[in-house]
Amino acid sequence: MSRVCQLYDLRALVSTDSLKVSDVKLDQDKGEVTVDYTWSTHYGCDGYSREKTMHERWPFKVADNNIVFEMHMPELHVHHEL
Q1: How far is CA 10 from CA 13, 25, 29, 35, in A?
Q2: End-to-end CA distance of the chain, in Å?
Q3: Which segments within 7-73 are labelled E, that is strand?
Q4: What is the pLDDT of residue 16?
Q5: Beta pairing class for 30-42 and 13-27
Q6: Using CA atoms, how far apart are residues 36 and 12, in angstroms rounded to an integer?
Q7: Tens of pLDDT, residue by residue, the chain (82 residues)
Q8: For residues 17-29, b (16+ Cβ closer than 10 Å) or e, as one string?
Q9: Which of 25, 61, 65, 72 would be a feasible disulfide site paired with 30, CB 3.0-4.6 Å?
């Protein structure tokens, strides 16, 4: 979750306490879970901050009584500020 949010803002921090599962669909040995979570950013000038709630669907499969998520994470690129 953190790496995805950093695509929107390099200073983004995910609030893990905000993770909420709103829906689960299961069909035989595969399914999808719908989640919401919040990320926030503080810019350090005049107390300016930003907060956004993400709404995502994560596919999964069931294998050996385990739920396995297949998540395609973007590469983490290091950005430099001048």
Answers
A1: 9, 33, 37, 22
A2: 27
A3: 13-27, 30-42, 49-63, 66-69
A4: 81
A5: antiparallel
A6: 16
A7: 666 666 666 677 788 888 899 999 999 999 999 999 888 877 766 667 778 888 889 899 999 999 998 776 666 555 545 4
A8: ebeeeeeeeeeee
A9: 61
Phi, then psi, of 4 in degrees rounded to 5: -65, -45
What pLDDT sits at residue 33?
A: 94
Alpha carbons 24 and 42: distance in angstroms, whole number: 33
53 half-sphere exposure, CB direction, 13 A CA radius: 7
* Alpha-carbon gap, residue 39 to 3, rounded angstroms: 11
pLDDT of residue 82: 44
What is the Cβ-side half-sphere exposure of residue 70, based on CA atoms within 13 angstroms?
A: 8
Residue at 40: amino acid letter: S
